[in-house]
Please model this.
Amino acid sequence: MLGLALLWVGAVLFLNGLWLMGRIGDREIAIINIFSGGVTLLVSLYLAFGPGNNLAGQQAAGLTLLFSFTYLWVAYNRFQDVDGRGLGWYSLFVAITAVPVAITTLQGAGSLWGYWFGLCWAAWAVLWFMFFLLLAMQKPIAKLTGAVTCIQGIVTAWLPGYLLLGGYIA
Model:
């Protein structure tokens, strides 16, 4: 399930980065956010309530929902007359949450994939903090945030998602 979720996280991050750099229109970007938010929401529900659910599955579901809610909120904001500050403050909450997740993932890593995934969480913490600065603090860093979002979409999500789905890593 992680590969499936990461593949779509990669797509939405890459496209949201392009959107932040002015290459995709405000209303058009909503569809990938709705779809990716929906995919990660379904993965989360399965992990939390599906057959054989356990504490690890519920933890994975809770963390995946951080992504789902982000993407659904981005989509919502594209159709409302809002400035995004609420999403910015939510991004700070997620950035703070992602820091200990990165640390514990790195501490428990026993393989290259484990270390990579821990570093992904650290990178996502930085990215969500950048969204806090951009949206809540109104810092003029849209292009920089867009570039970082594109790069992280490829390195932290699309590539590992593709490798997981292809069975190249486990």
Remarks:
- The longest helix spans residues 55-79.
- The two ends are 11 Å apart (CA to CA).
- The chain has one domain: 2-165.
